[in-house]
Design goal:
By secondary structure, the chain is an alpha/beta fold. It has a single domain (22-201), classed as Rossmann fold, CATH 3.40.50. 27% of the residues lie in helices and 22% in strands. It has helices spanning 29-37, 58-68, 122-129, 149-157, 174-182, 191-202; strands at 21-25, 47-51, 72-75, 86-89, 95-100, 106-111, 132-133, 137-140, 161-165, 187-189, 210-211. The strands form three sheets. The protein has a seven-stranded parallel beta sheet with strand order 3-4-2-1-8-9-10, with helices on both faces. Helix 1 (29-37) packs parallel to helix 2, helix 1 packs across helix 6 and helix 3 runs parallel beside helix 4 (149-157). The longest helix is centred in the C-terminal third of the chain and has 12 residues, at 191-202.
């Protein structure tokens, strides 16, 4: 077997072809994420979520999601490996949630200034995810402002598939509207259709991720 196909024990945590899922949301996003993630199966693709939220609220949000989700929902931790069946929610406070793929796909929580007035912000996650090969499947949900729009565009340009929530089902159409205006979304869908689209486009999982 060629060396680039050899699996380490850590890399084998992701098995088979497929993509990860990244999701960003703000105002109205808590309810939207309950709806969306409740449709994910127990063996869903590795999924990362940035929801604009004040410190002290993430623990309750994660606990609530675990009551309605078949997948395991956890608060993201630095250097945590990504595995099928887990949804990683960014902690609130002083860190941004990013991804690295060297030597193996994992989470990095990084200290950096706020982006678009938020920390964590959606763009740092999306921009880091755009460097993965294969590029991920991404969704930008309801929210005020434009956080995530540029990152969504970069994922689309990198060959990933991008979805923006439609105006009718958004509480605030700022973030997904900004993505629409940038041409960042392959699809504009109602919230009720986004989970199925993400899962279909992500497919089975992969073990040989790299940074371009």
């Amino acid at each position: 077997m060629p060396p680039d196909r050899l699996k380490t024990a850590e890399a084998a945590a992701l098995d088979g072809p497929g993509r990860i899922i990244v999701i960003g949301a703000s105002t109205g996003g808590v309810e939207a994420l309950y709806t969306l993630l409740a449709s994910f199966p127990a063996d869903c693709p590795p999924t990362l979520v940035v929801q604009h939220m004040r410190p002290g609220y993430v623990e309750g949000f994660v606990a609530g999601l675990n009551r309605v989700c078949a997948a395991e929902v956890v608060q993201a931790q630095d250097r945590q490996l990504l595995r099928p069946g887990q949804v990683h929610v960014a902690p609130a406070g002083s860190l941004h949630l990013c991804l690295v793929a060297n030597p193996v796909l994992s989470i990095r929580l990084t200290e950096a200034p706020p982006v678009h007035g938020h920390r964590p912000a959606v763009d740092p996650l999306f921009l880091s995810a755009a460097r993965l090969r294969p590029a991920p499947v991404a969704a930008l949900l309801t929210g005020m402002g434009r956080d995530g729009a540029e990152g969504l565009l970069q994922i689309r340009l990198a060959g990933g598939h991008t979805i923006a929530q439609d105006q009718a089902s958004s509480v605030v159409y700022g973030m997904p509207g900004a993505a629409r205006d940038l041409g960042a979304a392959d699809q504009i869908l109602p919230l009720s259709s986004i989970a199925a689209a993400l899962l279909r486009l992500a497919g089975p999982q992969i073990s040989d991720r790299r940074i371009s």
